[in-house]
Amino acid sequence: MGKISSYTVDTTVEGTDLLIGTDAATNNATKNYTVQSIATFAASNLLVSSTVPAASTDAGTQGQIAADSTHLYICVQTQSGGVADTWKRITLDTF
After folding, report:
1. Would you kindly state where each structural domain of the chain is located, as residue ranges?
2. pTM (predicted TM-score)
3. What 3-state DSSP class applies to 35?
């Protein structure tokens, strides 16, 4: 097998294209994954909300993302041991 850098760069990605990876659930076995299976996994595990939090302690799920016209919000902690949920936000600038 040649170096990865020696392969032709393919800029057309299709759902049936294969990517190689490691499956942690099967003792780190090397497996092929389709681009579509990775996209489906990402879509079902990415928590995007159309409602932004009003306060940094509003209910959320760790990893949840929300946005409005001025900020991107990310829930960085889900309630645990009496600690409220925690949201952080980043100001969006026009470029």
Report:
1. 12-45, 48-91
2. 0.55
3. helix
